[in-house]
Amino acid sequence: MKAYNNLRNSGVTRRVVMAAAIGAALLLGAGTTQAQDKSIVTLVVPFGAGGGVDTVMRAVADRLTPVLGKTVLVENRPGGSTILAYDHVARSPADGTVFMIGTPSMSTNQAFKPGTGPGDPRKLLAPVAPIAEQPYMLIAGPALPAEVKDVASLLKWAKDNPDTLDMVNSGPLTAPRLAAELLAFRTETPIVTISYQSGTAGVLDVAGGRVHAGFTQIIEAMPQVTAGNLRPLAVSSLKRSPVFPDLPTVSETVPDFDVTSWNGMFAPAETPKAVIDEMNAAVNKVLQDESLKEMFRSQGTVFVGGSPEDLGNKLDSEIKRWEDLQSKVKLEID
Fold it and tell me: What is the pTM of this model?
């Protein structure tokens, strides 16, 4: 099946902002990190400050500090579709002072560009604990007719208007982009995917009528949904979100469709089991904090917790799922 990821020329104004070159990001991140004060723990977030992942991890870090009896800091290392952060942590001392917050990009990078970056994260990083999961929201804007109110009507419109539907995402190797590609493949619907440097920028273009639709983080969509500039069509998880119980899932129209945002904590490979077990216990304790759950409930965030094995299995299954899609569709990722 043809991959519908090349931009077309049309009367709709589109602003495409691509991610920074991965090679340059790796060059900036090269070098072995020196051991740091053992009383300080650094959580490396692969995105800039103020975003959804960063906000959640800062709240988690604040609560980890008293549990561990150590100062837990968040360090932002954006760039290279998260490879800059991954490369830094893989080179860091395996002594319990540096951890990474992994996201879906960890699996998509390995599946679609296995030769890019320091290597297979399943070999270079040790899973510590799952942290959170969150569905993406499928949104539509004023560029689509008002009768497009759900997944079925969106697909019908796309098939009635071939090679017309375009969908925004937050980067070429991000889960929102791949969710659109998976939807195109599973339903044999031509979809043009448009990558932005941030999800918020794409959402604003959908709300402004410059692009039709897109998968996006709930936190990025809700201000425009509340203002009436966007229509939420569905969530991307297999089951309905407890926060939005009236919003259907994509899987209710496309069986077994399930693409979610997830966060998990990883350590450099060779980190001692005792260190990993200590951090795992601390994370699981923090994730039971009701104030933490309430803080992010409106965003659809579910704090999951679990064992290192749970996170390792999650990463492995995600990599295999995207490798399977690539073997069938042959997406152009650059």
Answer: 0.79
